[in-house]
Amino acid sequence: MKMTREQLHDLVWSMPMTKIARQSGVRDQHIARACDGAEVSRPRAGYWRKVENGKSVTRMALTNDRYAASDVVTINASGWTIS
User: Fold this and answer.
1) 55-75: per-residue pLDDT in tens?
2) Which domain of life is it from (predicted)?
3) Is the dihedral of CA 2, 6, 8, 10 positive or negative?
4) What b-and-e string marks burial along 47-78, b requiring 16 or more CB atoms within 10 Å of the CB?
5) Where are the domains of the chain?
C-alpha cells in the first residue's frame, strides 16, 4: 500500500481502518502506526459509531509541520516508511 500523506489522511477519515486493512491486505495496526509516525490524524474511538448514529463529528485537518502532504507513505506487512 503506497500513497501520499494527504491520500492516507483522506482514506482513514473515509472508512474504518479495519475495512481499509481488509481491502489492502495489511493489518490495521500497521496503518495506525503509519498514521501516528507520519503525523496523519486519524479518528479516535467512537468516531464511526457516532457517524453510524448520525451524530455530529469533526474531521481533523492534516498538519504539515514535519512532513509535506505530498510525502509518500508505504505500508506493508513489515511496517511502514515515509519518503
Assistant:
1) 999 999 999 999 999 999 999
2) Bacteria
3) negative
4) beeeeeeeeeeeeeebeeeebeeebebebeee
5) 2-82
